[in-house]
Amino acid sequence: MIASTLTFIGSVTPVIFQGADLTFVDCDRKSWNMDPDLLAQELAACKRRGCLPKAVIPTDQYGNVRIMSGLWRFVKQRMLLSP
């Protein structure tokens, strides 16, 4: 699982309680949401290690809504999901 470093504890606590691996990706300075470039780097590193995450947990911060359809396409392009 991948989550943003700036998130509400309730977004990641269930992941920890289930014993899943959790990786944090830092935030974009403009939106305070998950930085797409850093997410791309992390996904590439995961792919090289042969351990793609089961999910990406995006969160909206301070009214700066992340466009979910854009994030969905972004993750799908990095081959997390089969076509």
Write the layout of secondary structure elements.
Elements: E1 2-4, H1 9-17, E2 23-25, H2 36-49, E3 56-57, H3 68-77
Parallel strand pairs: 1-2, 1-3
Report what the structure shows:
There is one protein chain. The chain has 83 residues and is mainly alpha-helical. It has one domain. The protein is built from three helices and three strands. It has helices spanning 9-17, 36-49, 68-77; strands at 2-4, 23-25, 56-57. A three-stranded parallel β-sheet has the order 2-1-3, covered by helices on one side. Helix 1 (9-17) links the parallel strand 1 and strand 2. The chain is globular. The model has no long low-confidence stretch (mean pLDDT 81).
What is the N-to-C order of secondary-structure elements (H for helix, E for strand)? EHEHEH
Strand-residue proportion: 5-15%
Radius of gyration: 12 Å
How many individual helices? 3
Instruction: Compute the average pLDDT.
Output: 81
> In terms of structural class, how would the helical and strand content be classed?
mainly alpha
Number of DSSP-assigned strands: 3
Query: How much helicity do the residues have?
Result: 25-40%
Shape: globular
Largest sheet: 3 strands, parallel
Number of domains: 1
Ranges where pLDDT stays below 50 over 5 or more residues in a row are none
Distance between termini? 20 Å
